[in-house]
Design brief:
Length: 105
């Protein structure tokens, strides 16, 4: 994939993750009135380390670490709701990787 296309796909992945975090809204920020892009900082930190995740559980741990870093220890949650969010994130990342692989062919 050429550099320009890679950058475009990366930006789309960031937007998709921001939407996923807002959809799940585990901290209630969006439902409390924050803008739908409230989780963009978290998305950026998550995307930067997704390459090291090989499972949904890895993504769940990563998101917990990011939330802990930004919001504090009490927000480093892991439960059935965070797992569902991690599943969506992992799926989005796999789609991104498939897209990158297909565009190389």
């Amino acid at each position: 994939m050429d550099k320009k296309k890679y950058k475009q796909e990366y930006v789309l992945l960031l937007k998709r993750l921001t939407k996923i975090l807002a959809k799940h809204d585990l901290l209630g920020l969006v439902s409390g009135g924050s803008p739908r892009n409230e989780y963009s900082q978290e998305s950026t930190l998550i995307v930067a380390k997704l390459q090291y995740c090989t499972s949904i559980s890895d993504v769940d741990n990563l998101v917990a670490d990011v939330y802990k870093k930004i919001f504090g220890e009490e927000y480093a949650l892991k439960n059935q709701y965070t797992y569902a969010q991690a599943k969506d994130i992992f799926s989005a990342y796999k789609d991104y990787l498939d897209q990158a692989k297909n565009s190389r062919q």
